[in-house]
């Protein structure tokens, strides 16, 4: 299948029901979900299949499986959720469930790709995200991908015997086009890849 969107090391393809088994394993892995709201309760295969089908079929979400180009290994799920056509905003969510690929720059590339997709293809005005403050990999990956700190929600999540603050980050369209679009276009647009 031709990739939907491609970067130097990663490509995106649509989520397919065949991926449900893999997503079930990722979403029930306590290391993967350590900092996340997802994973507080175990989920059955049927619940995950239903959740993914629901998320995928909603007109307010666009969901991809991110894949390693070199090995064709599925890396995780990434998407734009709660797409609001009036405010032209969307929430980016990412989960790299394949732990072999953590800490190697994939999270940064995937974050850049989904952001590029949101602005360049979906004409978003604002792309935002949230994560647990203690999640250092997330903090660094999103900052490197160009997201700006917008605020902190105190004691927003309870996990692992503790309350955690969560952080909100975002990028606005004007800022994206000033700071990031030409660099991302060179890496992620089909025109640049065919040139
Ligand atoms: C959070 C996540 C997307 C980050 O992706 P990643 O591929 O591991 O991150 P990257 O390799 O792009 O790392 C970006 C930076 O964070 C650093 N980093 C990675 N893991 C780290 C860790 N555990 N502690 C501290 N820094 C870390 C990297 O070294 C890199 O910094 P550098 O360029 O200065 O060296 C990914 O680890 C993940 O999906 N984890 C599980 C689910 C999750 O937490 N999702 C986010 C919920 S909002």
- What does the radius of gyration come to? 16 Å
Name the ligand types: coenzyme A
Task: List the secondary-structure elements in sequence, H or E.
Answer: EEHHEEEHEHEEHHH
Q: What is the strand content?
A: 25-35%
Description:
With 195 residues, the protein is of the alpha+beta class. 34% of the residues lie in helices and 32% in strands. The chain is built from seven helices and eight strands. It has helices at 20-27, 45-57, 106-121, 136-144, 173-179, 181-188, 190-194; strands spanning 5-6, 10-14, 62-68, 74-84, 89-96, 126-132, 148-159, 162-172. An eight-stranded mixed sheet has the order 1-2-3-4-5-6-8-7. A hairpin with a 4-residue loop joins β4 (74-84) and β5. α1 packs across α2. The radius of gyration is 16 Å and the shape is globular. Residues 32, 35-36, 76, 94-96, 102-108, 131, 135-138, 140-141, 144 line the site of coenzyme A.
Question: What does the secondary structure layout of this molecule look like, with pairings?
Answer:
Blueprint: E1 5-6, E2 10-14, H1 20-27, H2 45-57, E3 62-68, E4 74-84, E5 89-96, H3 106-121, E6 126-132, H4 136-144, E7 148-159, E8 162-172, H5 173-179, H6 181-188, H7 190-194
The structure holds coenzyme A (COA).
Describe the structure in brief.
The protein has 195 residues and is an alpha+beta fold. The protein has an 8-stranded mixed β-sheet. The chain has helices spanning 20-27, 45-57, 106-121, 136-144, 173-179, 181-188, 190-194, and strands at 5-6, 10-14, 62-68, 74-84, 89-96, 126-132, 148-159, 162-172.
